[in-house]
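step: validate -> pass
step: tokenize input -> pass
step: predict -> running
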Amino acid sequence: MKRNEYHVVPNDGSWKVEQGSRSLGSYDTKHRAVEEGRKVAHANEPSQLVVHTSDGKIETEYTYQNDPFPPAG
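step: predict -> pass
step: emit ->
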């Protein structure tokens, strides 16, 4: 089963949660966006939430349920 991937990204002074090119919500604070992103990701396991910094770099990742594609070795 493929893992669902969600991202918390900056959005013109606010933050949004997105899945691919689809926006799932916009939030005033990064904290609130991460909270909502974790709820969505947890409800759609297996999944991963990738949180970005204000300049777009990856800050942290949360993985829910077992990774369906573990690395060999």
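step: describe -> The chain is about 20% helix and 45% strand.
step: cleanup -> pass
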